[in-house]
Design brief:
The complex is a heterodimer of chains A (250) and B (284). Chain A is an alpha/beta fold and 250 residues long. Chain A is 32% helix and 31% strand. The chains are: A alpha/beta (250), B alpha+beta (284). The interface between A and B is large, with 43 and 30 residues.
Chain lengths: 250, 284
């Protein structure tokens, strides 16, 4: 059960979250705060896993609250999901390790996806530390990315990306349910990606090996990569040896 | 003429020895002699100088006038564009609000989704501020949101396809130039058919021009649409003309199978400054 605290100075904003979260299984609201002091008191007393934090609040802004919470010694640091009407703090929120950033007004579906991210994060945290640090790539590669897409702020875990294609100065990122166009070059993006997980299969495409079902030889002698959802991507000959290696390993 | 004679009188008075190699003459005689010899020259020089200075004066005035006129035209165009955009926005805004208002009763979840999408659209529009030309990638993000909202209204009955040549993502277009075209596609085509419909939006390069096409299946071009489709289309047309003069075009065709296609072409230009994107990477 995830214990959550709602911190927002607006009663209707708290009511909306309360109502939506009550319908949700596996999450329980352990308190509500209307300003910075109340938030600190509540977090110290209840030690929640998750805080829904408004950015504009009397006393201290949400970003500073988050920073202070993350420095408190002794008690476990709660996961933060920001809820705000302003999108200009997204990068700072990302930097203080917020799990998600909900722009008001947000939908039920958007809230669920934020809670999913929190669940994943909690399960990663609860793993014995040996596993996460045994990977040689920890710290060298990005594990998540922030960008704006269709007016939303997206904090996307890299592991959610299925495949990426290049479109001149842009890249197109595909997840299970969505597609985002980002102004970024393939080369720059590839630098940030863990090469044990993301593999270049073509001049203009990178695939996440977690979602690869098989490598197939087409009747015309060309190779293609088939994803778990049935999507088929063209693969250049030169990349074939590497992918079979990696697939054998995993 | 009188000036020249007067000038000559002063000259003759100042230099009593002139003309050289002639016997001394009284003042009037010398004056007559000089006038006879130099008057024509002087006249020519005088008039030429006068003409030259007046010419420069006129030219400067003309330039100033032209500049003022150009500035005025620019201001006027800007005001027009702004006004046209304002005409588009409230119309679209209140229609959407009305949709949300009715969805609140019928389908609260859909109302919620539409409200979020409308907020995103407003946020994008507000951030854009007074900018008139934006990269097509941004216009398409706006369009995708708008289409998602239309999708809620039409309960997924209409498929939507967007394609933009990868090299064109940074090409500039006037803000919200597609929305009225798409709205027309729904109002006059897609909403009038019971079966599944298709809306396609495609941007491609045509030499030095950018061509954007909005096509929809429906009932073809009906004569009565001429006036009703007019307002939105006329606005688009006016905005294109204000931005690009004669270098743009807008046309409507009916294709087989009652498909209606609107094509706009405009000069291809790309955004020059590198824009700050929000994108960032992190380790959780």
């Amino acid at each position: 059960m995830i214990h959550a605290v709602i911190a927002d100075d607006e009663a209707l904003a708290r009511a909306k979250l309360r109502q939506l979260l009550q319908e949700e299984r596996g999450i329980e609201i352990v308190g509500e705060a209307t300003n910075a002091d109340e938030t600190f008191t509540l977090v110290r007393a209840m030690k929640p896993h998750l805080v829904f934090l408004d950015i504009h609040m009397p006393g201290m802004d949400g970003l500073d609250i988050a920073a202070e919470l993350s420095q408190s010694k002794g008690s476990p640091v709660p996961h933060i999901v920001f809820t705000t009407a302003h999108d200009q703090y997204a990068l700072r929120a990302f930097e203080v390790h917020a799990v998600d950033y909900l722009l008001k007004p947000f939908t039920h579906e958007r809230l669920i996806s934020a809670i999913e991210h929190v669940r994943k994060q909690i399960s990663v945290d609860s793993q014995p530390t040996g596993i996460s640090t045994s990977s040689t790539n920890t710290g060298r590669y990005a594990t998540r990315i922030v960008f704006k897409s269709r007016g939303r702020i997206v904090f996307l875990p890299m592991s959610d990306i299925r495949w990426i294609s290049a479109e001149e100065n842009y890249v197109r990122i595909r997840t299970a349910s969505e597609m985002h166009l980002l102004r970024e070059t393939m080369a720059r993006l590839q630098e940030k990606l863990d090469p044990d997980v993301f593999l270049r299969i073509h001049r203009s495409s990178i695939v996440n090996l977690q979602y690869v079902k098989e490598v197939r030889t087409e009747p015309d002698g060309e190779y293609s990569v088939v994803l778990l959802n049935g999507e088929k991507l063209g693969m250049s000959r030169t990349y074939r040896a590497r992918i079979t290696d990696l697939l054998m390993k995993s | 003429m009188l000036c020249c004679i007067f000038e000559e009188m002063i000259w003759v008075a100042c230099f009593p020895h002139l003309p050289l190699n002639k016997p001394r003459m009284p003042y009037w005689q010398r004056l007559w002699f000089n006038l006879d010899a130099e008057l024509v020259d002087n006249l020519v020089i005088f008039w030429c100088t006068l003409a030259l200075f007046r010419g420069i004066g006129y030219y400067q005035q003309l330039r100033e006038k032209e500049e003022a006129a150009a500035e005025l035209r620019a201001q006027l165009a800007h005001a027009h564009v702004r006004a046209l955009r304002m005409q588009l926005n409230p119309h679209f805004l209140f229609n959407t609000m009305n949709s949300i208002s009715s969805l609140i009763r019928i389908d609260p979840m859909a109302a919620d989704a539409m409200l979020e999408q409308l907020s995103s659209l407003l946020r994008m529009t507000l951030q854009r501020g007074e900018v008139q030309l934006i990269p097509i990638s941004e216009e398409m993000q706006f369009t995708e949101l708008y289409l998602a909202m239309q999708n809620l209204r039409f309960a997924g009955r209409i498929s939507q396809e967007i394609s933009v040549d990868p090299e064109l993502h940074d090409a500039l277009v006037p803000t919200m130039i597609l929305q009225p075209l798409i709205e027309n596609a729904y109002c006059h085509g897609l909403s009038r058919i019971q079966h599944e419909g298709l809306l396609t939006i495609a941007a491609r390069r045509e030499g030095s021009k950018l061509q954007v096409r909005v096509s929809n299946s429906g009932v073809g071009l009906l004569p009565e649409d001429g006036t009703r489709a007019g307002v939105g289309l006329a606005n688009v047309q006016r905005r294109l003309r204000l931005h690009y003069g004669d270098e743009q075009s807008l046309s409507i065709d009916e294709l087989p199978d009652r498909i209606v296609r609107v094509t706009i072409t405009l000069p291809l230009s790309f955004r020059e400054s590198e824009v700050a994107t929000l994108t960032g990477y992190g380790v959780a």
